Amino acid sequence: MVKSGIGYDIHRLEKGESLILGGVKVSSSIGVIAYSDGDVLLHAIVDALLGAAALGDLGKYFPSSDEKWEGKDSLFFLQYAAELLYKKGYKIEHLDSTIILESPKVSNKISDMIDNISNAINLDKSSISIKATTTDGLGFIGKNTGIGALAIATISK
Question: Which of 44, 49, 50, 106 is 20 to 30 A (C-alpha) from 123?
Fold first, then answer.
C-alpha cells in the first residue's frame, strides 16, 4: 500500500533572527520568528510524513504551548516523526519539497539540507528533493517579510 501526505509551513521574517532551513543555518540579516528553531522546510516535511500515515500533525506532538519545545532543533521533530512511521510498519519512499523565499538565495545550501535529512531519517539522498523558488516580489514573501515551504511525502507499507 502506497500513501502520500502534504505539508505546509509559513513564518514571519524579521531582522536579527536566525534562518535555519533543512537543519542548515543560512547566513542572512533576517530570520524566522518562531517557537522552535522555525525550520519551515522540516516542519512541512514532518507534516507531510505524519499526514501520509494519518497520524496528525506537528502541533499534535510538539505544541507551541509547551515551553520544552522552545528553540528545539527541528531535526529532532523529523527523527521523531520518522520513528513513528517506522514503528507503524511504514517505509519512507520519497520526499519532495519547495522552499518559498525571496532572499537570501538558498540553492547553494540544498545539498547540505539533503545531507541532514538523509542522515536524520536514514533515507537515501536520491529519495529527497528540495527546490527553492521566489514569488517574484508578490505578497508578504515577495516583500521579504515571510517564508514558506511545501512538502509531499510518499510512504509504503
Answer: 106
SS3 74: helix
Which of 76, 5, 2 minimizes the C-alpha distance to 39? 76
**Residue 82: enclosing H or E segment and its boundaries?**
helix 74-87
Q: Tens of pLDDT along 26-77? A: 999 998 888 788 999 999 999 999 999 999 999 898 887 877 777 778 999 9
Q: Which of 1, 92, 100 is nearest to 44 (CA)?
A: 100
Q: Give how many domains the chain has, as a whole number.
A: 1
DSSP 8-state secondary structure symbol assigned to residue 41: H
In order of 25, 56, 77, 111, 118, the CA distances from 60 in angstroms are: 26, 6, 12, 30, 24
CATH number of the domain that residue 46 is part of: 3.30.1330.50
Q: Which domain holds residue 52?
A: 2-156
Residue written as cell 533576517? 30
Strands (E), 16-145: 19-21, 24-26, 30-33, 91-100, 128-133
Cell of 79: 527523527
Distances (CA, A) of 25 to 15, 94, 129: 15, 24, 19
